[in-house]
Amino acid sequence: MVGESGCGKSVTAQSILGLVKVPPAMVEGSINFAGKELIGLLEEEYRKIRGMKISMIFQEPMSSFDPLYTIGQQLMEVSKAHLPLKEEEAKKRIIETLKLVHIPEPEKRYNEYPHEMSGGMLQRIMIAMALITGPEIIIADEPTTALDVTIQSQVLNLMQELQSSYNGSMLFITHDLGTVAEIADRVHVMYAGKIVEKASVVELFESPLHPYTSGLLRSRVKREYKGKDLPYIKGYVPRADQFSTGCRFSPRCPNAMVKCQEMTPPEFHPNQNHIVSCWLFEGSDKSEDTNNQGS
Ligand code: SF4
To answer: Which end of the chain is more exposed for a tag (fewer CB within 10 A), N or C?
Structure first.
């Protein structure tokens, strides 16, 4: 899932895990996990899913661990909360998972504190924490944003490696299209709390349809821009209490029409497996063809 900062990506992830406090917040719609509706689930039931079937990797490895407990104690707490393992078995599983994420000398690191680790190492330990229970889905919320560029690629390489060996799905949240190109199979583009385009990664980069996606792709820094003004999308993502009527992107959209300011565009399917919410594609809907082909 990709979009600018402030467009609602992290709130969406937190809503999936039931981490948004209701009230004062409001979570509407439907979150369907393995045939189960998660909205309105009791906290007690959520605890059986959160961390066990869906786990999360957070943005800030440095602030996500408790500085007063060793890495081993914190991983053991996760194991005790979710797995029916005796302490020795759990420790063995933790050490194996630390090895899986390439932590050197995992037996020694088990007894060390977070301040004794680098940012990259802590992020890999957070990935281990997410993997320990063997979840069906991992939500990775900008897991490389707080890291140096060289460490970012190490962590991304690790996640790609896990993707091919780990028998589950990953929802990777980022504002960085370079990361999307490296890691994603399918991309959902979010703007102002709504998904505005869905496509395979190849299709999205080769034939973006939504004016916001095209703007994001144009805004990537390239060598040929040297000495010239960099292209950018004018304006800012609006706050939730300032959404315009109709299409939420209309105040920033170079293609906006009168209709865009009056009516919210529904989803159109101009190509098989490519979905866009934009009035420019009205009448190009191939969803019936797609449905007929059983997709
Ligand atoms: Fe632009 Fe209109 Fe499409 Fe919104 S619906 S992205 S304003 S053309």
So the answer is: C
Index of the ligand 1 atom closest to the CA of residue 279 = 5
Q: What is the model's pTM?
A: 0.88
Q: Which residues contact 88 (CB under 8 A, 6 or more apart)?
A: none
Cβ-count burial of 181 within 10 angstroms (0-12 exposed, 13-18 middle, 19+ buried)?
middle
Q: pLDDT class for 294, splitting at 50, 70, 90?
A: very low
Q: Residue 196: CB within 6 Å of ligand 1?
A: no
Break the chain into its structural domains and give their ranges.
1-184, 201-295
Atom index in ligand 1 nearest the CA of residue 247 equals 4
3.40.50.300, 1.25.40.10, 3.40.50.150, 3.40.50.620: CATH of 1-184: 3.40.50.300
Cβ of residue 246 lying under 6 Å from some atom of ligand 1: no
Burial of 47 (0-12, 13-18, 19+ CB in 10 A): middle
Q: Are 60 and 142 in contact (CB under 8 A)?
A: no
Distance 208 CA to ligand 1 centre (A): 14
- What pLDDT digit, counting tens, does each position of 17-53 carry? 999 888 888 888 899 999 999 998 998 999 889 989 9
Q: How far is the CA of 246 from the centre of ligand 1 (A)?
A: 9
For 267, the 3-state DSSP assignment is coil
